[in-house]
Amino acid sequence: MLIVFGLLAFVIEFAFMVGVYLLASGLVGGGFGGVVVGVLAVVLVAALWGMFVAPKARRRIPKVPRALAAGAAVAVVGAGLLGLGHQRFGLVLIGSGLVLVLAQVALDDGLTDPRARERREQARQGDSRRSRSRRKPATPSRESAPSRESVPPRDSAPPRDSAPRAGAETEGRGETRRSRHRRR
Q: Which parts of the chain span the membrane according to its record (predicted)?
């Protein structure tokens, strides 16, 4: 059932963004200016939605105010579209505002995964991923740490062959053709 509510909320939010575009474009009067203003309005609303309403928002509004604000925003855009002459789409958005309120509340209450609840509680208490990653890792016990005797010593350089490589015949003063060629 949660999947259905999640899918329904997503479709309503997508229709809301389309409604924002139509409303902003219609208020300007259409044309190229309407397209630009409509796109900018969608970008602004999507950024605000992502910051305060989205499930992974860092500054997520509490459940009831968030659900009411989301539903009211969808209904206001629907009412604005009614005023511009988009009766069907406006009425659909006004009705969808109520459905979105119910879906937001049901989705928030429906978190049955205990790990998700635990993460949410940690986030509320200020225990974010960053603060957890800054913690020092636990030091291994003496029994689990390898002893120095069991770790072979590192050599500073791998052993080299004394014979020159093929194609690198020596030519006076300890240089090879390749090394002299590289200097040029």
A: 7-24, 30-52, 64-83, 89-107
> For helices 87-109 and 2-28, what crossing angle results, to 10°?
140
Q: Give dist(CA 98, CA 71) in Å, integer.
A: 6
Q: Angle CA(103)–CA(105)–CA(109) in degrees, nearest 5?
A: 115
Distance of alpha carbon 70 from alpha carbon 55, whole angstroms: 13
Token code pair at residue 46: 């999507």
pTM of the model: 0.58
Rounded distance between C-alpha atoms, residue 64 and residue 33, angstroms: 37
Q: What is the helix (H) or strand (E) element at residue 107, kind and residue range? A: helix 87-109
Give the pLDDT band (50/70/90) at residue 132. Answer: low
CA dihedral (50, 51, 56, 60) positive or negative: negative
Tokens 């259905």 found at: 4
Q: What's the CA gap between 165 and 167, in Å, rounded? A: 6
Domain chopping of the chain, boundaries: 2-111
Could you give the C-alpha distances from 17 to 21, 37, 78, 117, in angstroms and in order?
Answer: 6, 13, 11, 29
* Number of residues that make up the chain: 184
Q: How much is the pLDDT for 120?
A: 66
The beta-carbon contacts of 172-179 under 8 Å, at least 24 apart in sequence, are: none
Residue 183 host element (H or E): helix 177-183
